[in-house]
Amino acid sequence: MDLEQIKQLNMVSYLINLGGVINKKKSSKYGWYIKWENNRLWIRYDYKTNKYFYTNLNTTNDNGTIIDFIQNHIIKERNIGKVRRYIQDNIH
pLDDT tens digits for 11-39? Predict the structure, then answer.
């Protein structure tokens, strides 16, 4: 799977599978408000690029695509090779 395909993975479904919970009252047609662990995340879908983007509302420097999320929260390392392996092993 190339990087562009990874960025197009449904981040909302991914976070729900990790135990995230959508707050329907705070979500809107513009995006989803999801609580995951101790994080408050805003997820939006960009129809022009077909990519999901997240913003961690708990901090100002944690945002990006699913690749950034996996690097920042799952493998805790900026290593695209490990992200690809994680995707292959865990996301179907």
Answer: 999 999 999 999 999 999 999 999 999 99
The pLDDT assigned to 2 comes to 87
- Which residue in the block uniquely carries the two structure tokens 């944690």? 62
Residue 90's CB is within 10 A of a number of other CB atoms, namely: 12
Give the three-state DSSP class for 88.
helix
Contacts of 64 by beta carbon, 8 Å cutoff, 6+ apart: 53, 54, 72
Contact between 39 and 55 (Cβ < 8 Å): no
CA 62 to CA 70: how far, in whole Å? 11
